[in-house]
Write a structure and sequence with these properties.
By secondary structure, the chain is mainly β. The protein has a single domain (3-348), classed as YVTN repeat-like/Quinoprotein amine dehydrogenase (Methylamine Dehydrogenase, Chain H), CATH 2.130.10. It is 3% helix and 48% strand. The strands form 7 sheets. The chain has a 4-stranded antiparallel β-sheet with strand order 1-28-27-26, with no helix packed on it. The longest helix is centred in the N-terminal third of the chain and has 6 residues, at 3-8. The radius of gyration is 18 Å and the shape is globular. The chain starts with a helix and ends with a strand. Residues 1-26 have low confidence and may be disordered.
């Protein structure tokens, strides 16, 4: 099991502490491409973090930050609220009615529902063990929470806020995406596979191997051209045909990725990497060439793409010195510097 794989199998706080200076071997950063860091928004607070979700219409950014979700206005870069009383957050999904949001609280084994205007919690729905990746499926109006430790998916009816199905999966699920037409895809980290699920029948309809991909984590989709982008250990992005499951390409990305995104306007796929790079892949020609490896910050391995302005938001923090290794703790983790939690804003020049 690689060091990065270990990170993926432990708690969120530990996961976000591991990808630090000296852990990864970074590929050469390229500052000459179309993207640059435009701003750094200091959010502060303590603890680890996980996924980032942009609400393009409301100009808000949801940050899963340990036992809370921070809410940031993307026009000002200022925090405008938070959802507290949680245990260990992983991700946030948003409905298409501008009404509710859904938080996967992995440590509590629940999905927490909140009002998107007041930011108040309105329900807590039992899920499987350690719900992690989460999405809203618009055709069936359902919320899908993918449970990392019980290897299944909890499906919730967004109208009744009740669980309607628990779907078994062949291994540990990571990040999911929906195609907007009633199909859900999810990476299976422990099997190097993608599973395709029918949101109407609540059944798995295909399992595809990810050639040249180890421990897939982040997943993005090009809905028009029907392509899936899985980011993997070993510095690879696996590009898969979403209709047939055929492997299309494996461009090289940075080390220690955890999130993927896709810009349909410019037809670019992104990988945020723990080694402190953001890899940009041109998909328009079908050759999947890397056009930039933007230097970001060590540990900035989760992100979200904002379709309203074309920006990418990444999160990281500052870290203290690494303690000396011991027999009991051969891989000691440096502490996060208090109040150093930061959003990096990346945009096109």
């Amino acid at each position: 099991m690689s060091f990065i794989n270990v990170c993926k199998r432990i708690s969120i706080a530990a996961c976000c502490l591991l990808p630090l200076a000296g852990v990864y071997t970074a590929i050469a950063a390229d500052q000459s491409g179309p993207y640059k860091i435009e701003a750094r928004w200091k959010i502060g607070g303590d603890g680890g973090w996980d996924y980032v979700t942009a609400d393009a219409q409301a100009h808000l950014l949801y940050l899963a930050h340990g036992p809370r979700v921070e809410i940031v206005d993307t026009r000002s870069g200022k925090a405008v609220g938070s959802i507290t009383g949680l245990q260990g957050t992983h991700g946030v999904a948003l409905d298409d009615q501008d009404k509710y949001g859904y938080i996967s609280d992995g440590r509590a084994n629940v999905v927490v529902v909140f009002d998107r205007h007041s930011f108040k919690t309105v329900a807590s729905i039992p899920a499987g063990t350690n719900p992690d990746g989460i999405l809203y499926e618009p055709v069936t109006k359902t919320v899908w929470a993918f449970n990392g430790r019980s290897s299944n998916a909890t499906v919730i009816d967004a109208k009744t806020q009740k669980v309607v199905s628990t779907i078994p999966l062949p291994g540990k699920p990571e990040f999911p995406v929906a195609d907007g037409k009633g199909t859900v895809f999810v990476n299976i980290e422990t099997k190097n596979e993608i599973v395709r699920l029918d949101a109407k029948t609540l059944q798995a309809t295909a399992t595809w191997p990810l050639s040249g991909c180890e421990s897939p984590s982040g997943l993005a989709i090009d809905r028009v051209h029907r392509r899936l982008f899985s980011v993997c250990d070993g510095k690879k992005m696996a590009v898969t045909d979403a209709n047939s499951g055929k492997s299309l390409a494996t461009p090289e990305i940075g080390d220690g990725p955890d999130a993927a995104a896709f810009d349909p306007t410019h037809q670019l796929a992104f990988s945020s990497n723990g080694d402190g790079t953001l890899t940009v892949v041109d998909t328009a020609s079908g050759k999947f060439n890397v056009i930039q490896n933007l230097a970001t910050a060590q540990g900035a391995r989760t992100m979200s793409f904002d379709s309203s302005n074309g920006r990418i938001y990444l999160v990281t923090a500052e870290f203290g010195p690494r303690p000396a290794a011991t027999t009991q703790n051969p891989r000691p983790r440096p502490a996060i510097v208090p109040d150093s939690f930061t959003v990096l804003v990346v945009g096109r020049e």
